[in-house]
Design brief:
2 domains, 303 residues, three-stranded antiparallel sheet, alpha+beta, Jelly Rolls, Arc Repressor Mutant, subunit A
Length: 303
């Protein structure tokens, strides 16, 4: 079975949507530069994709890749038809042909809970079957009808609404895969504890919470909390606190005229020399160099 991977950060843009019934315009081989989602309203539909000949029944969906040649390989009944929606995706959907591992068809990304994570480190995605027959097909067909109505009588922010609805359709198809595989993606108690720890660090990093304070807040030993955090985040609690402090320091250096000593104290460093050492370790340059480079960048925009 083939799957498509859709990043949670993907921007969707609906280009066109329509409903086809009967054989008008369906027989010719065609392709387009966008992704295309087909959902059969009444089957069978005889769809040829490349050299593969498919027979799609009512309620089935199929995802086409950009420029993928498709058409019919056999005439369909006059009452048979399907909805189709063409859409751009940035970043695009990736074809995944490998067999799924046993268990949950997706993995929780612990890094996304960290304030210091970048977009590149967020690797979670929706797993979409290229061909499926979702249990919730009537709900999906209803959303297709909404998108079709928007494009038939466009007004206001119709493209924005259409893209939101398309995202909901893809989420329903992805969730149906989880449901049909009878997967129970329950979050473990240790992961919930990790998230509580992250939240405490996010709210108290400027005061450098002590091991005793963390133990009292979470009712676990500091050694256990340290191991738990390292296992999920890949870094130590102390390293994460420093990342948070330097993250805020960079904002203050670029948006205020406060002296570096004051900024160091505001983010949780009593020793400005230690602050500069940690800043250079994480950023590769000193706080003053960071401020100078940022100010030069702003100046360049207006010269």
């Amino acid at each position: 079975m083939e799957y498509l991977l859709l990043s949670r950060l993907t921007r969707l843009d609906v280009k066109w949507v329509s409903e086809l019934q009967g054989n008008d315009g369906f027989g010719l081989q065609k392709s387009n530069p966008f992704f295309e989602l087909i959902m059969v309203t009444e089957g069978p539909i005889y769809l040829q994709v490349g050299e593969e000949k498919l027979e799609l029944q009512s309620g089935e969906t199929f995802l086409l890749m950009p420029w993928e040649k498709h058409g019919s390989w056999k005439p369909i009944a006059n009452q048979s038809g399907f909805y189709w929606v063409q859409f751009a995706a940035d970043p695009g959907l990736r074809l995944h042909k490998e067999e799924l591992e046993e268990g949950v068809p997706f993995k929780l990304s612990a890094n996304q809970d960290l304030r210091t994570s970048t977009a590149e480190s967020l690797t979670d995605f929706l797993l979409l079957p290229r061909r499926s027959k979702p249990f919730n097909r009537y709900e999906i067909l209803g959303i297709f009808e909404k998108i079709h109505q928007q494009f038939s009588a466009p007004k206001g922010y119709f493209r924005y609404r259409a893209s939101l609805w398309l995202g909901h359709i893809l989420e329903l198809v992805a969730q149906d895969l989880v449901d049909q595989r009878q997967v129970k993606p329950e979050v473990s108690s240790t992961f919930l504890l990790y998230r509580r720890l992250v939240n405490i660090l996010d709210e108290s990093y400027t005061s450098n919470p002590s091991s005793k304070e963390l133990e009292q807040s979470l009712h676990h030993s500091y050694d256990y909390l340290s191991q738990l955090f390292k296992r999920h985040a890949g870094i130590t609690i102390g390293s994460y606190i420093h990342q948070l402090q330097i993250q805020k320091a960079k904002h203050l250096l670029s948006s205020t005229t406060s002296i570096i000593r004051t900024i160091a104290e505001e983010v949780g460093f009593q020793d400005p020399f230690y602050f500069s050492r940690i800043f250079k370790k994480l950023e590769g340059i000193s706080p003053q160099q960071f401020r100078d480079s940022h100010m030069h960048g702003i100046t360049d925009k207006f010269t």
